[in-house]
Amino acid sequence: MKQLLFHIGADRYALRLRDVVRVLPLLELKRLPLAPDAVAGLMDFHGQSVPVIDVSLMAGMAPGRQHFDTRILLVHYHGPDGAAHLLGLLAERVLGIADVDAAMLADSGVRAAPFLGQVASDTAGIVQLVEPDQLLSPELRAILFQPEAAAS
C-alpha cells in the first residue's frame, strides 16, 4: 500500500495515498478570527475555500514549524453524514511516498487520538497512519463545514 510520509514534530506519520488529492507548497493562508488554534486558516484551491488545520496542534504538540519541506496536504474528508469535503493538513517535513506492506500494519492499541490508526515499522523506525475522516471533532467539523442549507 502506497503512503505519503511526513513528520509531526520528530515522529513519522503517513496518509494512504488514495486519501491525498494534492501536495501543495506552503501557501499564505487567510486567518479565521475566533477559530480554534488548530485551524491554520483558509486557502484558495481553484476558487474553492478550503480549511487548513495544523496537524501538530491536532496531535497535542506545539504548532508546526515552517521548514523548506513543509507542505499542505490536500485530502478527501468524509463527515459522518457521508458528505465529502476538501481539507488541508499543514504538515512538517514531507518525506515522500513509501510502499508499506499491508501485512506489516498492526493495530497500535492506542485510543488517545482517534485519528491515529495502524502502525508499521521499517529501518527508520515506527510510522503511524493518520485517518483523515477521524481528524475533526464534531464541534470543529461544525465550524469548518456548514450544512448546505445553512450556507445559502
How would you describe the overall organization of this protein?
- This protein is mainly beta.
- The protein has a single domain, classed as Beta Barrel (OB fold (Dihydrolipoamide Acetyltransferase, E2P)), CATH 2.40.50.
- Helix content is 10%, strand content 46%.
- The chain contains three helices and nine strands, in the order βββββαββββαα.
- The protein has helices at 55-58, 138-144, 148-151; strands at residues 2-8, 11-16, 20-25, 39-45, 48-54, 71-78, 84-99, 116-122, 125-130.
- Strands 1, 2, 3, 4, 5, 6, 7, 8 and 9 form a nine-stranded mixed beta sheet that branches.
- β8 and β9 form a beta hairpin.
List keywords for this structure.
152 residues; 9-stranded mixed sheet; CheW; mainly beta; 9 strands; 3 helices; OB fold (Dihydrolipoamide Acetyltransferase, E2P)
Mean pLDDT across residues: 80
Radius of gyration: 15 Å
The CATH homology group name: CheA-289, Domain 4
> Could you tell me the strand content as a percent range?
over 45%
- The termini sit apart by 40 Å
**Strand-and-helix sequence, N→C?**
EEEEEHEEEEHH
> CATH class, anyone?
Mainly Beta
Structural class: mainly beta
Indicate the low-confidence ranges by residue numbers: none
Domain CheW-like: 1-141
Pfam family, one: CheW
GO biological process, one term: signal transduction
InterPro entries: CheW, CheW-like_dom_sf, CheW-lke_dom
